[in-house]
Amino acid sequence: MGLVIKMIYDYENKTLQVKIVYYGPAMSGKTTTIKHLFSHFNRENKLESIDSSVGRTLFFDFGVLNFRGTEWGLKFLIYSATGQDFYASTRPATLNGVDGIIFVVDSRTICLKHNLRSWKELNTMLGSEFFNIPMVISMNKYDINDDIIMNETDFKYHIDIDAFKNVSVQKTAAIKGYGVIESFCQMIKFIFPQLTLNMNITN
User: Fold this and answer.
1) Which DSSP state fits 136?
2) Phi/psi of residue 165, each to 5°?
3) Which of 12, 24, 49, 194 would disulfide-bridge 104, Cβ 3.0–4.6 Å?
4) How far apart (Å, rounded) are the C-alpha atoms in residues 170 and 85?
5) Could you give all domains of the chain from N- to C-terminal order, each with its CATH number?
6) For residue 136, what are the CA distances in angstroms to 15, 83, 123, 162?
7) pLDDT tens digits, the chain, 203 residues: what are they?
């Protein structure tokens, strides 16, 4: 089976609509990552977050990034899936029609089990499509003290990473913005391998 891409073609407006979901355990940095992504493109006002009273995402973050090329445009629907177990029932709907996943790992050694539980849950929900969907693994919080940070090999050891058609592991520090844009661009390259990334952001 080839890559599972569900993008929507709008021939009238010459636009491709793509859905990217940031997935991972609670407090791994998904919302912080998305906020930096939208800030980079000066589109903070295009991001919607439903937060709890303590600043944790209840259901999901959602925003749209539009890019215009010479002939066709790209419309990226960006979501985060809540990591809180109380709202786990919302995750399947968030993943519906996904074209690419950026899995945000909490790279603290003590969080390995939480990461793997979230990873296995994602695998279960996507079923046979799991290894065919483009995947970027964001090893987040790499700005924390090295003594409490796992090596990417430690996480890769527990997952069948070689089974993916397209997969990349990126070190990130979302709170500082390190690696966030690189991870997003890597996902675009997976979905559009022939695309030259010199498109202009639009409203």
Assistant:
1) E
2) -70, -40
3) 24
4) 26
5) 8-202 (3.40.50.300)
6) 24, 18, 14, 13
7) 334 446 777 777 788 899 999 999 989 999 999 999 999 999 888 787 765 444 444 556 889 998 887 678 889 999 988 755 545 556 777 898 999 999 999 999 999 999 999 999 999 999 989 999 999 999 999 988 777 899 889 899 999 999 999 999 999 999 999 999 999 999 999 998 877 655 555 65
